[in-house]
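Okay, any thoughts on this one?
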Amino acid sequence: MKEKIYFYYTNDLHSNFSQWPRVAKYINDVKEKRNTTNESCWVVDIGDHMDRVHPISEAFMGKENVALLNEVGYDFVTLGNNEGITLAHDDLFHLYDKAEFQVVCANLHSKDDILPDWLNPRVQIKSFQGINIGIIGLTAPFNDYYELLGWEVSDPYVVLEKYISELKKSTDIIVILSHLGISEDQEIARRFDDVDVIIGGHTHHLLRTGEEVNQTIITAAGKHCYHIGEVILTWDHEEKKLMKKEAYTIDITEYAEDTQIAEKLVALQTEADQILAKRVITIDESISIDWYTNSTIMQHLTDYILANTAADCAMFNAGLLLDNFPTGDITYGDIHRACPHPINPCIVELTGAELMEVIRATYTKEFIDLELKGFGFRGKILGKMVFSGLDVITDYHPNGQEYVLHVYFDDKPLVVDQVYKVVTADTFTFGRILPEVAKSTYKSYVLPKFIRDFLAETLQVHYGKRFQQ
């Protein structure tokens, strides 16, 4: 006798709620189909379901994301970095208090050794025909952030050594829910022969029919839930082994919507708007932003962050601010709309030579016009870099391109081998946008405040009249 076992999964929704009614409809349809034929089926999410770029996630600090997962009937979820490092310790500790699913994450620990009741390192489940399945969850180890928030994420390979060894004694199939990214998933498959399936996310890769590495099938469904993933495992009860592993992704962009979920989201948006409607200040003159110049508000924000951190100088890109502020009341919702990115300031150490290279790079058209996607940035283009604590002297090429002539700190030229503490957006500590920043051996993230929290304070200090409760 052969038994088919099904997993349906989502990953990296990033609060793209416009797609969620289709997700709900599709999952409910396939669950009904599998239940009708008495086939084992589970629904899982691989993390980054929440993204504080969306007003609903911002207003409710992710708890309504959990409610939406409950309503669709998810069985298991693991944490992404957007759940893990964009919330204060207490907010994450209580995020899943009302979850009706199991949260599985083996490498997340609290530095005070007090763990939330909802956290499971691994779980075991059983199919209709008695096949034992072990599930391990893993999240990306952004420990520079986690440790400042009172958490610690251990090495996923060390954790896997422990739990795979344990589960192989009592299970027939081992499944990893991995918010680590495609390269790490491939390495896990190479290192651990006993892993049957890795359902992945984090790097937003789309594997339409899976990928087999060392007899492990790896799968992931891109981002924003335009696709839903399906894993089909065929167990031969006579041979007592897994005979076939299949993985597919289904494009649901044209799928019908669950009207009740769509209506719920409309109601949640209204409630979120009401929560975020709290006034911060009232301004007598409108405030304009400009991605290509040193706008006054951007200069004030850069100066304010420098004054409130232990850095020597500051640099923030103008593209962080997405909208103007018209005359009248400014609410938290307005600030969130203007600066929606889940980005923190970060202090890095650069030599004078490195800092000069960084500054020169930021004046290039390639940097200013870069349409960045990811690394926390939710804007259009990076825009011009705005500096504080530094005097940057520039000139123009015949073609109109601005370039750097000299940079002064404390009225003196940058010293090539002197180390400077520079506060900037944490976006630049990842990837290759500004390599010198990303490679800095010293990084001190300013948590849990986002840049928009500093923006609210900047507005209160420099503009209009602060609203009194």
